[in-house]
Amino acid sequence: MITTRKKKIYKVGNVREDISPLHILKGKVKRMIPLYIEKYLWVENNYRPKVEIRLGYSEKYIYLYYKVFEKEIVATYTEINNPVYKNSCVEFFINLFPSTTDEYFNFEINAIGTPYVAFGDKSKRKTLTEKDILKIPILSSLHKPFVGTINNDFWEITFAIPIGLLEFYYRKKFNKSKATANFYKCGDDTRYKHYGVWSEILTEKPNFHLPEYFGELVFV
């Protein structure tokens, strides 16, 4: 049973053109209104890194920019669909058609840009092929496997999700109106285990795969 709570809503701005390369995109998306991961659940260790996220979209892509204020990181996985959630990691879960299906995507990317992507409902999920995942351009501020303290106060991830790729798995066209989603920050095998969420999850045990707690994205 879900306790009554205020639903999170974010308006995704239109960047009006498909942007490439990603370093140009980052500048445009950074001008969008930010949302923040502020709720840290399930572990009482006071580790709560600030996470700023901005979204934009064009005719062909959904663009995401994560700025993570975290100096001590673990980033060891380098192969696509490795368990990057164990590293210093950001995640984005989205359902483009919440009124007609329970299926959603989860995009998980560690601090050096290694992705894990899967699709399905919460009881039956399948990882995307490496060929499909390589269609998602990813730009990270860190590039090599690393464990320790970085020289900056934050690390960044920017990526562009092809809307056509999402439509292929859903087998229908997205009308760019509304979707449901959640945003996460985690690190199961980092020095301080942590689970940060945008739209709060009201359960006793850690679980990000609960679309009933997703917030709403409005494409404006």
Quick gist of this model?
This protein has one domain (about 15-200, about 210-220): Immunoglobulin-like (Sandwich), CATH 2.60.40. By secondary structure, the protein is mainly beta.
Question: Can you walk me through this structure?
Answer:
This protein is mainly β. The chain has one domain: Immunoglobulin-like (Sandwich). It has helices spanning 22-29, 130-133, 163-170, and strands spanning 9-14, 35-37, 39-40, 50-57, 61-69, 72-75, 89-95, 104-110, 115-121, 124-127, 138-140, 146-149, 155-162, 178-186, 195-197, 215-219. The strands form two sheets. Strands 1, 2, 3, 4, 5, 7, 8, 9, 10, 11, 13, 14, 15 and 16 form a 14-stranded mixed sheet that branches. A two-stranded antiparallel sheet has the order 6-12. A hairpin with a 2-residue loop joins strand 9 (115-121) and strand 10. The longest helix is centred in the N-terminal third of the chain and has 8 residues, at 22-29. It is globular. The model has no long low-confidence stretch (mean pLDDT 93).
